[in-house]
């Protein structure tokens, strides 16, 4: 399983969508405004569809804006949760990849910070 992208969430990520830099995804089409769906699954095997739009920003260049409102609501995501997107090979089909999204929350337990699955 290869990590594609990871970050601590901000209020903007939660409220307005998750920006994934194009450099994390390989070559994005050079068509600002192009929309597509990203099929992902979480650690429980539940499938999610994220609506994605290619956008451009002078500081980052092209990036994928991921609309994930249902996922945010269902998982009760919060500022400083850590989201990681992985790409993993499909086992049964023999070719292709799955996109897996993981979310962890830092909790303090017996004076130690640990990351728990959300």
Q: Layout of SSEs?
A:
Elements: E1 2-8, H1 11-16, E2 18-21, H2 22-25, E3 35-41, E4 47-57, E5 61-67, H3 69-75, E6 82-89, E7 97-109, E8 112-117
Antiparallel strand pairs: 1-6, 2-5, 3-4, 4-5, 6-7, 7-8
- Strand residue percentage: over 45%
CATH class type: Mainly Beta
What is the string of helix and strand elements? EHEHEEEHEEE
Number of domains: 1
| Major sheet summary line | 4 strands, antiparallel
Descriptive notes:
With 118 residues, this protein is mainly beta. It has a single domain (2-117), classed as DNA-binding pseudobarrel domain (At1g16640 B3 domain, Beta Barrel). Helices cover 14% and strands 53% of the residues. The protein has helices at residues 11-16, 22-25, 69-75, and strands at 2-8, 18-21, 35-41, 47-57, 61-67, 82-89, 97-109, 112-117. Strands 1-6-7-8 form a four-stranded antiparallel β-sheet, with no helix packed on it. A four-stranded antiparallel β-sheet has the order 2-5-4-3. Strand 4 and strand 5 form a beta hairpin. The radius of gyration is 15 Å and the shape is globular. The mean pLDDT is 85.
